[in-house]
Specification:
Strand content: 15-25%
Strand order of the largest sheet: 4-3-2-5-6-9-7
Number of domains: 2
Structural class: alpha/beta
CATH topology of the largest domain: Rossmann fold
Number of helices: 12
CATH architecture of the largest domain: 3-Layer(aba) Sandwich
Shape: elongated
Order of helices and strands: HEHEHEHEHEHEHHEEEHHHH
Largest sheet: 7 strands, mixed
Distance between the termini: 71 Å
Radius of gyration: 21 Å
Bound molecules: S-adenosylmethionine
Helix content: 40-55%
């Protein structure tokens, strides 16, 4: 029996002993192959000087490897049924703190400030796929003091994060990820690497925080309001989408004029604009919008 099969049998036995039932609603697909777990830790660039936030430790297989590589680990798990299993599996890991809760509802910036004590924070997770984008947006937008985020996500989501203008999968997530970080896809993984297997292929991606964003913009909030409005109605022209949804106090004609002044055709769609072009448009609209 190879090490992946051996580990899977061991995990099944532990889960069975605890009478655990997988909860689909929590996106529970556990990783069983120790070599894959080691590859994720290596991709994260973790050292003993780092502190880790792990989202969704499951039964703690990745957590154990993170505890070996990092100075300290905070693992946040929503499923109360997994807490006794995690406590048992991680009993000898003195540098791991378990927290039961919904990561979307926790004040992560505050919690990490307190736990990390000035050490660089790396987020590492095999994310629950039902809630990947909201978790990533929370990490990116809430002033959380991370240096990098290394996550297992659905392959298509990883591709959206790295997509550029003109592509069908380019959108608000691509722009937010690329504004705050440098994304790099490390490797892909087939469903059979998980237990139970998900219906989709997966990818491991690292988002490394930029020292300063690659574009400057006068009003970041307006930039992201424009981006959101453009992609909420992505089949509409940019002028129509912004007139309907960006919270701008400008008429469609005034917005269209600004778009043309920036060198775009009046009928351009948001999906054609680069991050730099969205930033210039936001700067062009910022004064007008305040009038
Ligand atoms: N890390 C484990 C592994 O790799 O085997 C489990 C990964 S599994 C894909 C996702 C985990 O996230 C599950 O343990 C699930 O219960 C947990 N989870 C789901 N939603 C969550 C939330 N909102 N907050 C915290 N944990 C969550």
């Amino acid at each position: 029996m190879n090490s992946a099969n051996f580990e899977r049998k061991r995990m099944e036995a532990v889960l069975h002993r605890h009478g655990f039932r997988f909860q689909k609603k929590y996106g529970q697909n556990f990783l069983t192959d120790p070599a894959v777990l080691a590859d994720i830790v290596e991709a994260s660039g973790m050292t003993k000087d780092d502190f880790v936030l792990e989202i969704g430790p499951g039964m703690g297989t990745l957590t154990a490897q993170l505890a070996e590589a990092a100075g300290g680990v905070l693992a946040v798990e929503i499923d109360t049924k997994l807490i006794p299993i995690l406590e048992e599996q991680l009993a000898d890991r003195m540098n791991v703190e378990l927290m039961q809760g919904d990561v979307m509802k926790l004040p992560l910036a505050e919690i990490l400030e307190e736990r990390a004590k000035g050490r660089p924070v790396r987020v590492v997770a095999n994310l629950p796929y039902y809630i990947t984008t909201p978790i990533l947006m929370k990490l990116l937008e809430e002033n959380i003091p991370y240096t990098s985020i290394t996550v297992m996500v659905q392959k298509e989501v990883a591709e959206r994060m790295t997509a550029g203008p003109g592509s069908k999968i380019y959108g608000a997530l691509s722009l937010a990820v690329q504004y705050y970080t440098e994304p790099q896809i490390h490797f892909l993984l087939e469903p059979r690497a998980f237990f139970p297997p998900p219906k989709v292929e997966s990818a491991v991606i690292t988002l490394t925080r930029h020292g300063t964003p690659p574009v400057s913009v006068r009003d970041e909030k307006l930039l992201f309001a424009l981006i959101r409005a453009s992609f909420n109605q992505r089949r509409k022209t940019l002028a129509n989408a912004l007139a309907n949804g960006a919270g701008l106090s400008l008429s469609k004609e005034e917005i269209a004029q600004k778009i043309v002044e920036q060198g775009h055709p009046a009928t351009v769609r948001g999906e054609a604009l680069s991050l730099e072009e969205f930033a210039r448009l936001a700067d062009g609209l910022v004064n007008e919008n305040c009038r």
